[in-house]
């Protein structure tokens, strides 16, 4: 089945130690998104790629970076995680201009910072 | 700018009761898309429904029904004969016409007690 995959589902990292979360998709969607969702809050968009074009949200900290080496994969890099970066990170994909328009979400990676 | 408001932060019902989750939105787009997602404790966002702004027909799917009222900018979600498995956080979301901005409401935590 076509889907959005996130690995790992659970990630523990140490304060200040760089960490990378990965997302892959078999939907051949041209847009990929990264959201951060903290406990009891709504998902918050960090950035998205429209094809190869990177679009950063204005309030996304510089500590967060992203890479998209090809259509299928997108990575979220947190250069120096702080305790406040502990959250669920959700990847989503879409293909604007098609009938569905919706964003398809992966299962998320729950990041713990110790 | 667009905005989604879910005034009910938490609802508690007893199994078999009907429950309605409210959603009110603001947008300047004439074409837009509304969604409901379910987020169980596992964290994955589960797509429930999409409604286009030009389609005000209400929809029923099993125990779920949605009432879209463009005149009041509302898109309410009703669960009939609630079950314990319905316990989750439910998010209403608004997608802009360009298809690249998905705005979530704050979510409503539904607890269904046996």
Write the layout of secondary structure elements.
The complex is a heterodimer of chains A (114) and B (114).
Chain A: E1 4-7, E2 10-13, E3 19-25, E4 31-37, E5 44-50, E6 53-56, E7 64-67, E8 73-78, E9 87-94, E10 104-105, E11 109-113
Chain B: E1 3-5, E2 10-14, E3 19-21, E4 24-26, E5 33-39, E6 46-52, E7 59-61, E8 64-69, E9 74-79, E10 88-95, E11 102-104, E12 108-113
Largest interface: A-B, 27 and 21 residues
Low-confidence stretches of chain A: none
β-strand percent of chain B reads over 45%
Q: What's the total helix number of chain A?
A: 0
Radius of gyration of chain A: 13 Å
Biggest sheet details of chain A? 7 strands, mixed
Q: What is the tally of beta strands of chain B?
A: 12
Work out the helix count of chain B: 0
Ends distance of chain A? 36 Å
Index terms:
heterodimer; A: 114 residues; mainly beta; 11 strands; globular; B: 114 residues; six-stranded mixed β-sheet; four-stranded antiparallel β-sheet; 12 strands
């Amino acid at each position: 089945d076509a889907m959005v995959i996130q690995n790992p589902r659970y990630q523990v990292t140490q304060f200040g130690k760089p960490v990378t979360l990965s997302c892959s998709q078999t939907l051949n969607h041209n847009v990929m998104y990264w959201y951060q969702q903290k406990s009891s809050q709504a998902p918050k968009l960090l950035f998205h790629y429209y094809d190869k074009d990177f679009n950063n949200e204005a309030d996304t900290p510089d500590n967060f970076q992203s890479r998209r080496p090809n259509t299928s994969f997108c990575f979220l890099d947190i250069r120096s995680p702080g305790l406040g970066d502990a959250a669920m990170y959700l990847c989503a994909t879409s293909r604007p201009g098609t009938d569905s328009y919706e964003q398809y979400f992966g299962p998320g990676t729950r990041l713990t910072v110790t | 700018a667009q905005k989604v408001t879910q005034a009910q932060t938490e609802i508690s019902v007893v199994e078999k009761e009907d429950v309605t989750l409210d959603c009110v939105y603001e947008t300047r787009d004439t074409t837009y898309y509304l969604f409901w997602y379910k987020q169980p404790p596992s964290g994955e966002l589960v797509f429930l429904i999409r409604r286009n702004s030009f389609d005000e027909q209400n929809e029923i799917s099993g125990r779920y029904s949605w009432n879209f009222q463009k005149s009041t900018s509302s898109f309410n979600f009703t669960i009939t004969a609630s079950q314990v498995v319905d316990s989750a956080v439910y998010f209403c979301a608004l997608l802009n016409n360009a298809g690249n901005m998905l705005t979530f409401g704050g979510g409503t935590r539904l607890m269904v007690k046996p």
